[in-house]
Amino acid sequence: MSHTIKGLSESSVKYDGSPLRVAIVHARWNTTVIDALVAGAVAKLKERGVKDSNIIIQSVPGSFELPLACSRVISGAHIQAASNVTDLLGGLSFGSGNSRAGTPAPAGVVTMPNEPFDAVIAIGVLIKGSTMHFEYICDAVSHALMKVQLDSGVPVIFGVLTALTDEQALDRAGLTPTGHNHGEDWGLAAVEMGSHVRRWN
Ligand code: DLZ
């Protein structure tokens, strides 16, 4: 039982992730934090029973690219998973970019089957700088990700940290002594929402 008023409370139901297929789409800006968040999400997906082969990871350059990538992943774009980084998360596939139909995958890249996803986790780390860039990207990305999930009916878990400082970002990825890895919450949210939507359909 947690004594904090903040954060995600544990569900009374243990959702079974074993039938689910989940995509993680992540940006590559602020990689140290991104890697911890992705690892946290994957750990919880696996803890809830999602099979390794049903966790697909696709990277994009920055958070601004997340909505389009999520939308295309949901609508069945072929995912290209780079095999050279599979070791990072114990045999999972890390994506390297969207393919164009008929275009052969670059060397070292494996094309994954395009079966439907039960949930997509969009992971990005935006850290405020000295210009308005941060505000524009935060606003655009959060609205666009909401639109993707409402238009598609597939849950898009909002895994975009909008941090005012480096310290805040590290804290929310569990990379400080008192921090908590929000990626874990996103993994659990993906299993819960994927299970709900299966039932609702
Ligand atoms: C340009 C930019 C800046 C300044 N900061 C971030 C950031 O903190 N986190 C992030 O994910 N992406 C950032 N980007 C890149 C944009 O998201 C995007 O990739 C580029 O503007 C190209 O569209």
From TrEMBL:
Any one Gene Ontology molecular-function term assigned to this protein's record: 6,7-dimethyl-8-ribityllumazine synthase activity
Entry keywords, A to Z: Riboflavin biosynthesis, Transferase
Record pathway: Cofactor biosynthesis; riboflavin biosynthesis; riboflavin from 2-hydroxy-3-oxobutyl phosphate and 5-amino-6-(D-ribitylamino)uracil: step 1/2
Catalytic activity: (2S)-2-hydroxy-3-oxobutyl phosphate + 5-amino-6-(D-ribitylamino)uracil = 6,7-dimethyl-8-(1-D-ribityl)lumazine + phosphate + 2 H2O + H(+)
UniProt-listed Enzyme Commission number(s): 2.5.1.78
GO biological process, one term: riboflavin biosynthetic process
Pfam family, one: DMRL_synthase
Recorded GO CC terms: mitochondrial intermembrane space; riboflavin synthase complex
InterPro entries linked: LS (IPR034964), LS/RS (IPR002180), LS/RS_sf (IPR036467)
Function: Catalyzes the formation of 6,7-dimethyl-8-ribityllumazine by condensation of 5-amino-6-(D-ribitylamino)uracil with 3,4-dihydroxy-2-butanone 4-phosphate. This is the penultimate step in the biosynthesis of riboflavin.
PANTHER family the UniProt entry points to: 6,7-DIMETHYL-8-RIBITYLLUMAZINE SYNTHASE (PTHR21058:SF0), 6,7-DIMETHYL-8-RIBITYLLUMAZINE SYNTHASE DMRL SYNTHASE LUMAZINE SYNTHASE (PTHR21058)
Family label: Belongs to the DMRL synthase family.
Protein name in the entry: 6,7-dimethyl-8-ribityllumazine synthase
Species per Swiss-Prot/TrEMBL record: Mycena maculata
Species lineage: Eukaryota, Fungi, Dikarya, Basidiomycota, Agaricomycotina
